[in-house]
Write a structure and sequence with these properties.
The chain is α/β, with parallel strands linked by helices and 321 residues long. The protein has a single domain, classed as TIM Barrel. The protein has an 8-stranded mixed sheet. A hairpin with a 5-residue loop joins strand 7 and strand 8. The longest helix has 16 residues. The radius of gyration is 19 Å and the shape is globular.
C-alpha cells in the first residue's frame, strides 16, 4: 500500500485551535466484517486490533471528568469489540448520548442477532453507511450482496422505531464512488428518501454526504491510478474559507484502540498524534488528558484537511455548509 502522508505533510492549510470538546470519538478496533475501497481505516475481517477493558474504563472516566456529552463509537465494526455493549450501557448511565457508526450488515453476523434490539433499548443513535441507494453501486464498492443485507437491516431498524421515533435517530452516510466531491447533501437526501421509501418502505432521519479522504486505502488507490495529484487539486480548488470555523476537529477528540489521542479520525489513520511536550511516549493518552485541558491547543493540519473544507464541507456529521 502506498503511504500518502509524505504527499500531504507540506501544507498551507490555515492554522486552527480546539474549542471545548463536545464529542469523544472512539475507535474500538479495526476488525470488520467488510473491506470497503473508501475505508480510511483499512478495516477488515483479518484485522485483530481491539480496545481492551482497561482502556474502555478510561474512556468512561474521561467522559465524566471532562463532562463530554457525546460518545461516538466507530471502527472497523465497533460492535465486534467484546466490550461494546457494556461500554454503551455504562455511557448511557452516565448521561452520554451514544452514536454507533454501523455498517448495517453487522446485524446479521453470528452473535449479533439481537443487536438492533439492544441499540433501540439503549436509545443509541445509528449512523449507518450506505454509499449509494442503487444496488450495483453499493455492491461494487462494498461487496456482493451488501445492498440487499443493508436494506433488510434498515427495515429491521425501522420496525423498532428508528427513523420514525425522534428518540431513535437513524442517519445514512454517502461516499462518492471515486475521486470526486459529493453532490449537494440536501438534494441527495431527497433522492435517498424518495427511492428507499418508494422501493422498500424505508424511512431515515437524515443523510450525511462525506468526501473521500486521500489517505489509507482510498489514497493508495489514487496513487496507483495516477489520480492523487488531480484529486488534491480538486479539493484545494474547492476550498471554502468559511468552512474552517466549523470543521469537526475543533470540538472533537479522536481516540485509537490503544487509548492515544488525535485531532480527528483521519489524523489517527495517518499517525499524526496529539502531542504535548513531556507527556508519556511523547504523545497524549486518555490518562494524560485526565490531568490537563485540551481547549485552545493547536490542531495538527496537513493537506488532507482540504477534504473537510472543499465545497459544502465534510465532517462526521455531513456537510458543513
Amino acid at each position: 500500500m502506498h503511504a500518502t502522508l509524505p504527499l500531504l505533510k507540506a501544507t498551507d492549510f490555515p492554522a486552527i485551535r480546539r474549542r471545548a470538546v463536545e464529542t469523544l470519538q472512539v475507535n474500538l478496533g479495526y476488525t470488520c466484517n467488510q473491506s470497503c475501497l473508501h475505508c480510511h481505516v483499512n478495516a477488515g475481517p483479518n484485522r485483530r486490533e481491539q480496545m481492551d477493558r482497561a482502556t474502555i474504563d478510561m474512556v468512561l472516566d474521561v467522559l465524566v471528568a471532562k463532562d463530554i456529552r457525546t460518545l461516538d463509537l466507530t471502527g472497523g465494526a465497533p460492535e465486534l469489540n467484546p466490550h461494546f455493549r457494556d461500554l454503551v450501557r455504562q455511557a448511557r448511565r452516565r448521561g452520554a448520548h451514544v452514536i454507533d457508526r454501523c455498517n448495517l450488515t453487522i446485524l446479521f453476523e453470528p452473535g449479533q442477532e439481537d443487536l438492533a434490539e439492544f441499540l433501540a433499548e439503549q436509545q443509541v443513535e445509528v449512523v449507518a453507511s450506505l454509499p449509494c441507494y442503487l444496488e450495483d453501486n453499493v455492491d461494487r464498492q462494498r461487496g456482493a450482496g451488501v445492498f440487499e443485507k443493508s436494506v433488510r437491516a434498515l427495515q429491521k431498524l425501522n420496525a423498532l422505531g428508528y427513523g420514525r421515533d425522534e428518540r431513535l435517530p437513524m442517519s445514512l452516510v454517502y461516499n462518492p464512488q471515486g475521486p470526486v466531491l459529493p453532490p449537494d447533501q440536501v438534494a441527495l437526501q431527497a433522492d435517498y428518501r424518495r427511492f428507499l421509501g418508494e422501493r422498500f418502505g424505508i424511512v431515515i432521519t437524515r443523510l450525511y454526504a462525506l468526501a473521500n479522504m486521500p489517505i489509507a486505502r482510498f489514497g493508495s488507490t489514487l496513487v496507483s491510478k495516477g489520480q492523487f495529484r488531480d484529486y488534491m487539486g480538486r479539493l484545494r480548488a474547492a476550498h471554502r474559507p468559511e468552512n474552517v470555523g466549523h470543521v469537526m476537529c475543533r470540538s472533537l477528540v479522536s481516540v485509537d484502540w490503544q487509548g492515544f489521542l488525535y485531532d480527528c479520525d483521519f489524523n489517527q489513520m495517518l499517525g499524526l498524534h496529539l502531542h504535548e511536550t513531556g507527556q508519556r511516549h511523547g504523545r497524549l493518552h486518555l490518562e494524560d488528558w485526565l490531568e490537563m485541558d485540551l481547549e485552545g491547543n493547536p490542531i495538527i493540519v496537513a493537506d488532507h484537511c482540504y477534504g473537510c473544507t472543499a465545497g459544502q464541507g465534510s465532517s462526521c456529521r455531513g456537510a458543513l455548509a
